[in-house]
Design goal:
Length: 273
């Protein structure tokens, strides 16, 4: 148990499920009335009480961080709530009162004085915000460079390998093959019949990126490309040529570090006729 340095309500910093709370207690008023204090007696849904598939942490693991709201991402960092608020409630309140930019500007000591935060949670939050700020301000020479499928795996492989549904992303690259952005284009059943090639190229055109690399996962764990995977890739290569966009590869991510590069397999170009 840690105590907020400003003398606020004690808060348990142990790694309990997100939103774990102690039961609310009734407090008598100074006048002796038995009326409950403000906020006491109301029912608060704890994140631990939600269906597992609806909890922020489980949703991040199954669908990726892009599927979560700012409040849900913040709740994962906070881990626990208070007696009267879940971690998601605390996160929503902080965003409403300060906003993301306000949380970034606030010091760790200022955040520790917020109701529902302690020194440990404030430090975790500041560390995460600082990492995000450093990533956003990377100089071009510091951006990840793609030299082969192993670089793709290092960048997104561990995250995509545990997704429960297929997800198709494009890595937008400059002339030096440095990553300018990573865009999620499709979630669900990724096949040639459903994927619109124009959607895969749209962000590259908007950002004026000359090179592009596609990557998607196979939830089965087997990265062997299907006929649809090969057909979609070849259509993407041909469409990219019309727009002067070089499609460098299509990497399929499986489980246990397994992956397949369609370029390395000789499946990137259309069969000669």
């Amino acid at each position: 148990m840690t105590i907020n340095p400003a003398g606020l309500t004690p808060r348990d910093e142990s790694p309990d499920p997100i939103g774990a709370q102690a039961p609310a207690q009734n407090h008598a008023s100074d006048s002796g009335s038995s009326a409950p204090a403000e906020g006491v007696g109301r029912y608060h849904v704890r994140i631990h009480d939600l269906p597992q598939a609806e909890r922020p942490r489980e949703r991040l693991l199954s669908s990726g961080p892009h599927a979560l709201s700012n409040a849900e991402l913040l709740a994962i960092l906070l881990r626990t709530g208070t007696r009267d608020e879940s971690a998601l409630d605390v996160a929503s309140r902080l965003l409403a009162s300060r906003g993301l930019d306000g949380l970034q500007r606030a010091s760790a000591h200022e955040l520790a004085e917020e109701r529902g935060l302690g020194p440990a949670s404030a430090a975790q939050l500041k560390a995460a915000l600082e990492l995000g700020l450093r990533l956003a301000t990377l100089q071009p020479e510091e951006r990840p460079t793609i030299t082969g499928p192993e670089d793709v795996l290092s960048l997104v492989g561990s995250e995509m390998a545990v997704l429960e549904q297929e997800e198709l992303r494009v890595l937008l690259l400059n002339t030096k093959n440095q990553v300018q952005a990573i865009e999620t284009v499709y979630r669900g059943n990724v096949n040639a019949a459903q994927v619109r090639i124009s959607e895969l190229l749209r962000d590259a055109v908007r950002r004026n990126c000359p090179n592009l690399l596609a990557v998607h996962n196979h939830p089965s764990g087997d990265p062997t490309p299907s006929k649809d995977d090969v057909r979609m890739t070849r259509d993407l290569v041909l469409a990219g040529q019309l727009l002067d966009i070089d499609v460098l590869d299509h990497v399929i991510v499986g489980s246990g570090g397994r992956h397949v590069s369609l370029r390395n397999e000789g499946l990137l170009e259309a069969d000669p006729t």
